[in-house]
Design brief:
7 helices; single chain; globular; mainly alpha; Four Helix Bundle (Hemerythrin (Met), subunit A)
């Protein structure tokens, strides 16, 4: 089977959304992270920016983090914890629904930026998001810290 990088990223995105809609947040975060990474690198290769780079340039995060490296680390915390083992990592973390929402949304943005086209799976996710936005926003607003 021959597959392009774009096709592989699209397959990962579709699987991430499917896992998310089933409530399987760990594979959703993992697959969304893989899709976002590939779409981001493809976008960079044509002179564009990754999703994190775009937001770093458009938003003032100085009150939260001083360095871009710290911003990227915070954004990727749960994805990296799921994908990699580091001796300094806690053995257990609590993954909440907004963590998965943000991961999948980032992958959707990366796909849309690179392809400039919609996908049925992204439309499904956005439908879910629009139906649940108030509940998700309330959860995020009430997070400690």
């Amino acid at each position: 089977m021959k597959v392009t990088k774009q096709q592989a990223a699209e397959a990962n995105l579709d699987a991430a959304i499917d896992a998310f809609l089933r409530g399987d947040w760990v594979p959703a975060i993992h697959l969304a992270g893989a899709a976002e990474e590939v779409f981001g690198r493809l976008e960079e290769a044509k002179g564009g920016k990754t999703v994190p780079d775009f937001f770093w340039e458009k938003t003032d995060f100085k009150d939260l983090v001083a360095r871009k490296k710290d911003y990227i680390s915070a954004l990727n915390h749960y994805r990296d914890w799921i994908k990699h083992h580091n001796a300094d990592d806690p053995i257990e973390v609590e993954i909440q629904e907004p963590h998965a929402v943000i991961s999948v949304m980032r992958a959707c943005l990366a796909q849309a930026t690179y392809t400039q086209q919609g996908r049925p799976s992204v439309a499904q996710f956005l439908h879910w998001y629009n139906e649940n936005i108030e509940r998700i926003n309330e959860m995020v607003e009430n997070w400690p810290g």
